Structure formats: C-alpha cells, structure tokens
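User: Just a sanity check before I run the rest of the batch. Below are the structure tokens for the first item. I only need the designed sequence back.
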C-alpha cells in the first residue's frame, strides 16, 4: 500500500487502480501502528511496502532472502534541482550527499526498530555501487518503489512520483514483516514526453517507455552516462552525479509552479 499525507485515495491513485494489474493484499493485514508513527515522526510522507517474493533480494547473514521491503522517498530541494538543467553544480553535489546521508541514517534506524520487534531487516545503502563493472548496486531502489506503488520509472531511468516528480532520493529496507503491499505500478505515465532524452548531453537515454522487468539497458546506456559524467563532472563526487535529465522533467518542474501559485 502507498501511504501519503492523506489516508484517502486521490485521483492519481484511482487512475493507477484502473490501469494497473495487481493482487490485493490480505485485507486482514494492516500496517502496524508503530511503523506509521515512526514514519510520521521522521517526516516521511511518501512510503509504502513492496511484495518482492518474485524477486531475488539480497541475503541476510544466514543466507535467507527477504519477501518484503519498505520503500520511501525523500525530496530534494526544488530550487537546487531546477538550477542544474545545464549541468551539476556544487549546491547539487552538497544536496545529493546530504539527502543520501539522511536516507542511510533513516535506514539504519528503521532496521533497528524492526529487529527489536523480532523481525529480520536489511537496509539498502543509497547510491552504493557494489558492482563497479556493471555499474549497479545490490538491488534497484526503483524496483521496490514501483512495487510499493510510489511511482513509475521515466525515460530517464529515474523514479517519478506525482508528489515530487523525480526530484527525490529513495530509501529501502528489506524485511520479513508481512505488510499490506502495493498495488504495484506497472505502466508509465510519461505519455509522449521526451524532454529528458533530448536534454541528455551523453545521448545515453534511448527513449524507451518503461514497464516492469524491462532491462535497464533498454532505457539507459549506463556506460555512456558514466563515461560522460567522469569526463565532464569529475569535480562532483568523482563524476558520480549529473542530474540534467531529472532537472528538466515536467513532473518536477510542476513543483515550482505550485510554489509560485501559492505566493
């Protein structure tokens, strides 16, 4: 189940329900009160649980995998995000590090809470390349997020949410707590938009529309992306960041319009 500021389903969620194939969780299973309170205390407004029983998750110390995961999104500063449409800057590098560090702290704290209650947890580090040859981590945060119903993957290979666009970083903690999960999002809502593809200076985006289990390579030439970042933006986290494709995404730019409409 996807949790947000309101417990009521909005028009976006209703649209997803009409256009997504899913299996409902056991209606007798509800999110524990301590978990919803924990999220509120830590000001996490967009989170959910993902059913990962059909996926190969990381293992715990006893070599057991995890059936579920908790996924959440932490928004980036919109003013900083809009400032990198032509390339990253120091403010973005600092914000990227700050949010990732915050996510890692939250993940460790949530894992500790889960363990105290007698369940198995395993936090997934933010932006940690454990496979440097294939340029990937232990498990895609985006997979947990789409299965939890937080958003979909755009043509820029980033998660897009209605609340924050793709101007977010993701956190994931695997667990064996049985939770109300999903419904997973199984289609994209980018329409015909290709702004990210056109803006990519590395020409690494292929323009493919995402659907579940579509190989990353069908969306992104990760080696072209990585090479461009190292050649042009090495001063920022040794070429680990860019952000142009996300900065031009209309779903993020809507945030600034909403803010200006309120002022």
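Assistant: Here's the designed sequence for the first item:
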């Amino acid at each position: 189940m996807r949790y947000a500021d309101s417990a009521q389903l909005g028009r976006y969620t209703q649209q997803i329900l009409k256009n997504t194939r899913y299996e409902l969780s056991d209606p007798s299973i509800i999110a524990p009160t301590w978990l919803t309170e924990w999220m509120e205390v830590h000001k996490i407004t967009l989170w959910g649980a993902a059913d990962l029983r059909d996926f190969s998750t990381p293992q715990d110390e006893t070599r057991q995998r995890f059936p579920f995961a908790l996924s959440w999104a932490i928004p980036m500063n919109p003013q900083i995000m809009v400032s990198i449409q032509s390339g990253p800057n120091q403010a973005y590098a600092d914000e990227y590090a700050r949010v990732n560090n915050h996510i890692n702290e939250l993940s460790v704290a949530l894992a500790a809470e889960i363990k105290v209650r007698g369940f198995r947890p395993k936090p997934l580090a933010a932006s940690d390349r454990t496979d440097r040859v294939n340029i990937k981590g232990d498990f895609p945060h985006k997979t947990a997020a789409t299965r939890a119903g937080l958003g979909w993957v755009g043509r820029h290979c980033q998660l897009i949410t209605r609340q924050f666009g793709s101007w977010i970083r993701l956190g994931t903690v695997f667990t064996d707590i049985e939770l109300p999960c999903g419904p997973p999002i199984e289609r994209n809502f980018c329409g015909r938009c290709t702004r990210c593809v056109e803006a990519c200076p590395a020409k690494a985006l292929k323009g493919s529309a995402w659907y579940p289990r579509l190989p990353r390579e069908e969306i992104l030439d990760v080696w072209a992306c990585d090479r461009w970042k190292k050649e042009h933006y090495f001063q920022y986290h040794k070429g680990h960041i860019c952000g142009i494709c996300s900065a031009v995404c209309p779903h993020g730019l809507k945030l600034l319009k909403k803010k200006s409409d309120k002022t």
